[in-house]
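Need Lacal_2735 family protein's 3D structure for a figure. Predict it.
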Amino acid sequence: MGLFGKLFDPVKRKRKLYDKKLEEGMLAQRKGDIRLYAQLSEEAEKMWAEIEALEKDKK
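Structure prediction for Lacal_2735 family protein:
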């Protein structure tokens, strides 16, 4: 993996987006917006599946 491969690691980028999505869900839950929380949690689960697939392909 070259220099640019390390800078633009898709797994790392997706993990940051995943973490942000989880945080948004947590904040929605705290505000009492359970529908938004459920939607964000579902999106986060899909993102996690993508991350696992990318990590599996890396190996």
